[in-house]
Design goal:
By secondary structure, this protein is α/β, with parallel strands linked by helices. 37% of the residues lie in helices and 13% in strands. The protein has an eight-stranded mixed sheet with strand order 4-3-5-1-6-7-2-8, with helices on both faces. 55% of the residues are buried.
Length: 361
């Protein structure tokens, strides 16, 4: 009996070594928003754009009209980055009303995130100086703001180069920084719409194809990051600010000008679904929702995870793709316009255009 008591005492004195299940790392949501200026989704379908098509197949697509909203770039990107339509933020053009003061009553998504969760990393990596201005408004503003249409010397660069540089910065922000919110703005489709769509429709589709290649690079970077960081859940949102008339241009209220689209791919968005309730104004509320920040009650938009703010049964805009063989000039004239375009939209070298980026937006 004494031996048994000693053995029992020895056992009870041993440290407990039962394995304790490891705590799983908390899930962190991260978002990339890709803004493609002046892009008609009907022309995306007509172009060779497999990466945008794949995002739509893997996520939820909306094809909507933004009427009666003003179809100008600063007006619409302000809506995407604040969550309110032009009737509230008051911006009506790309110049006199597109100023930092407009964002005082309706702060950008960057400011809202930085105020609520200052440890988040937010980046705006775009091609247009007006996007940079928007991202720098408020206190605090985006952690990093880059405008690739302006080189270190202050000169303007080609739209194709500016877009490629912006996309490369997004890839780095995802891969190296693991940023919580990355917004980018790609511009060459819009510039091509203004300069060549009316006389050379295929040029507009070619621009969409080039941007689609950049979208593919960004998507692959996101997917690689998600695969190597299993505690991160990445959402990609893609949208546009307005469309383009068949002859090129926008600013009015035709179906071609007011056409917009949204693609949402990530957790909670049904693959291959269409929900036309998603609108341009829903970008900011959706980002806030994904990153755990409540939306202010005065926003017009609503998180797309809650269905968005529009009508899910709204009709798809009637914007038939333009016959790419139709041209208003000889191919020689179109080629001359391409070569002489000061923003060298189809080139790769430095351009002579103004770095202001306000032309044709």
């Amino acid at each position: 009996m004494p031996h048994r008591l000693l053995a029992l005492a020895a056992l009870t004195a041993l440290p407990l070594t039962a394995a304790v299940p490891a705590q799983a790392a908390p899930i962190t949501n991260k978002v990339v928003v890709i803004g493609i200026d002046g892009t008609l989704y009907s022309e995306v379908l007509a172009a060779n754009a497999p990466n945008l098509g794949l995002l739509a197949a893997q996520g939820t697509l909306a094809q909507t009209s933004i009427a009666p909203h003003t179809t100008m770039s600063c007006v619409s990107w302000a809506t995407a980055l604040t969550g309110v339509w032009d009737t509230k933020h008051g911006i009506k053009d790309n110049d006199s009303t597109c100023t930092p003061a407009a964002f005082a009553p309706y702060p950008t998504v960057f400011t809202q995130l930085e105020q609520a969760r200052p440890n988040l990393t937010t980046e705006s990596l775009g091609t247009w100086d007006k996007i940079g201005m928007i991202a720098r408004t408020g206190n605090p503003h985006a952690d990093k703001v880059s405008v690739t249409q302006i080189d270190p010397s202050g000169s303007g660069v080609c739209e194709t180069t500016a877009d490629s540089n912006a996309a490369a910065q997004v890839v780095s922000a995802v891969t190296d920084d693991g940023a919580d919110l990355v917004f980018t703005h790609l511009d060459q489709v819009d510039i091509t719409g203004h300069t060549l769509r009316g006389i050379w429709p295929q040029a507009y589709r070619d621009a969409i194809q080039r941007v689609d290649t950049l979208v593919g690079k960004i998507t692959r970077a996101v997917d690689a990051r998600a695969a190597s960081h299993t505690d991160e859940r990445w959402t990609i949102l893609v949208t546009t600010d307005h469309g383009h008339k068949p002859e090129g241009g926008h600013g009015g209220q035709t179906a071609y000008e007011t056409a917009s689209f949204v693609i949402a791919r990530g957790p909670g968005f049904a693959a291959g679904a269409q929900n036309n309730g998603y609108t341009l104004a829903d970008i900011t509320p959706t980002v806030l929702d994904l990153l755990g920040v409540p939306s202010p009650s005065n926003l017009d938009g609503r998180s797309m995870r809650d269905g968005g703010s529009g009508n899910p049964a709204a009709p798809v805009p009637n914007t038939p793709a333009i016959d790419s063989s139709v041209t208003g000039s000889s191919s020689g004239s179109a080629e001359a316009l391409m070569v002489n375009n000061p923003l060298c939209i189809l080139g790769t070298g430095s351009g002579s255009g103004s770095a202001s980026g306000s032309t044709g937006k």
